[in-house]
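Exercise 7. Given the components listed, write out the predicted structure of the assembled complex. Treat all entries as one system.
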Amino acid sequence: MSRKETKMASCVFCGESATKQNQEGQPVCRDHAEQPPKNVECPDCGLPMKLKEGQYGFFWGCEGYPQCQKTFQIQDLTDRED
Ligand SMILES: [Zn+2]
Ligand SMILES: [Zn+2]
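Answer.
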């Protein structure tokens, strides 16, 4: 069976597989669909970070790019740490 699904996105809140997107276009699981959008501030320059979609799925990228190239994986910023 060929697996040609759309990229598996992780919920920005918990890291579980996301089933939808919130109003900001952030991938969220069903439990967190009603949650206000997650805000992340860049620890390097203080600008807000935006969710971007790259080759390997969603990641957080600094709005100051390309001057600031700070990025986070979704999993880096969820409550879940394993
Ligand atoms: Zn979630
Ligand atoms: Zn930055």
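Discussion: The chain is about 0% helix and 25% strand. The two ends are 30 Å apart (CA to CA).
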